[in-house]
Amino acid sequence: MIYTVTLNPAIDVSLHVKDGLMPGSINRSYGMRTDPGGKGINVSKTLKALGKESVVCIGICGEDGDRLIKSLKADFEVLSIAYPSGNTRTNIKITGENGVTTDINAEGPLYDRNSVEKMKSVILERLVPGDIIVISGRPPLGSPSDIYADLASDFSKVSGVRVILDCSGKYLQKGLDSSLYAVKPNCDELGLENDPDLAMNEANDIVSRGTSLCLISMGKEGAVFADKEGNRFYSKAVDVKVSCTTGCGDSMTAGIAYASDNGMSSDETFRFCMALAAASAEMEGTAPPEKERVLELSDSVSFCGQ
Question: For residue range 37-52, what is the model confidence (pLDDT) as tens digits?
């Protein structure tokens, strides 16, 4: 089974404005949609679109948290813990016809150690060899820098369990020493410019520290891939008509989990992830891409090895 862990989920409200966001003036939207959000939830939505089930593990708080659980239970098995203070986030995504998206993300609930430990215990009780755990997104406000390192380390102690991490900053750096199977940051999360050479150097360093697979995305500049077998790939982004870029990286994370669960080769994994990102960019809001479109776009992915 695949488990996605989102400690700080959200309700995503996506708005479309004709000329893009214009600060200091009235912006009129011609389209709006509401989706369950948060990086791990986006991963689960993509996996479901690909025909792969997953268990959604989330931390919630307040009435908006109850709304979020209700919206998720129609499609997923949900494991949840409740934080004692704060409220589940509502995030705003504003996209113009030029494909540029502006994100306004709320803070969400406050970190509570007992709640996170409870979630960890519930998941550990269920894990069996072959399971995959995706930990992603920003943790609750006030979380310790090793919050993901602690989770990943304990999950990895279960024989045959693979942990995928998608986060940024101090949470990522601490997590890299936790026997990870894969990481999927973007250049911004690593503090890098969107440059293939810089990204590949960083991917090489991450793999050298013990992570089995690293995929670093660079938006329209594409992505790089490195693994412990010595495979090194780079590809430009697939040229598609962009509707919204939010969630493209999460689709790539879902692609790593899907590929690992299906025994895909390194080059197949990279090609699949690039097609997923492109298909996701065509969708409105954080809606998942359609599997048929992903397979169609796979033929458009060309990459070089190093």
Answer: 899 999 999 999 999 9
Catalytic positions: 250
- Please tell me the predicted confidence (pLDDT) of residue 107: 82
Question: 3-state SS string over the chain?
Answer: CEEEEECCCEEEEEEEECCCCCCCCCCCEEEEEEEEECHHHHHHHHHHHCCCCEEEEEEECHHHHHHHHHHHCCCCEEEEEECCCCCCEEEEEEEECCCCEEEECCCCCECCHHHHHHHHHHHHHHCCCCCEEEEECCCCECCCCCHHHHHHHHHHCCCCCEEEEECCHHHHHHHCCCCCCEECCEHHHHCCCCCHHHHHHHHHHHHHCCCCEEEEECHHHCEEEEECCCCEEEECCCCCCCCCCCCHHHHHHHHHHHHHHCCCCHHHHHHHHHHHHHHHHCCCCCCCCCHHHHHHHHCCCCEEEC
> 2-305, superfamily in CATH?
Ribokinase (3.40.1190.20)
Each domain of the chain, given as residue ranges in start order, spans 2-305
